[in-house]
Amino acid sequence: MTKTQSVPSEVFIRPASPSDVGTLGDFGTRLVALHHELDPQRFLDTTDGTPSGYSRFLEKKIADPNAVLLVAVQDDAVLGYSYAQIEGYDYMSLRGPAGVLHDLFVDEGRRREGIGRRLLEAALSEIKKHGSARAVLSTAHRNKAAQQLFASLGFRPTMVEMTCELND
User: Fold this and answer.
1) Cα separation of 59 and 81, whole Å?
2) Per-residue DSSP letter, 5
3) pTM of the predicted model, to two decimals?
4) What confidence tens digit (pLDDT) does each residue in 121-147 have?
5) 73-to-11, 65, 139 alpha-carbon distances in Å
6) Structural contact between residues 72 and 105, judged by C-beta atoms closer than 8 angstroms
7) Is 110 helix (H, G, I), strand (E, B) or coil?
8) Which of 25, 101, 137, 156 could disulfide-link to 54, CB 3.0 to 4.6 Å?
């Protein structure tokens, strides 16, 4: 008797749909927790309302023509997501029109498989289709793995956010 091995199906990137919203709320909550762990004074902590709040926020973005909300999927399971917004001039940031990448998250058990890279490449492609000639993002200072990924796709450091706690 021969044993057959199942071949894993391919991971593909697609626009997020309303059926993904629950998972996206969970992923967004984990993204908040990750940032809080990196710098608890700077980044918000999660609350009981974070999953539903994040879900509601991202659900609205599905229908927003200036939003780019993508998911990485394998066998109907969402493995990660990216969220970017097409924005005009931002004089507070001294920035012209750009696609602003706000979130990039991959399930912890599926990292280092190229899923984040594929999500980011797809988001950049969509940003370009929207007519933006530039993409910008912010990343946590201590998130070196993310910074390496971003740099490998052409991002360069341009700003440094600094935080001062006034109540210490």
Assistant:
1) 13
2) P
3) 0.91
4) 999 999 999 999 999 999 999 999 999
5) 5, 22, 24
6) no
7) helix
8) 25
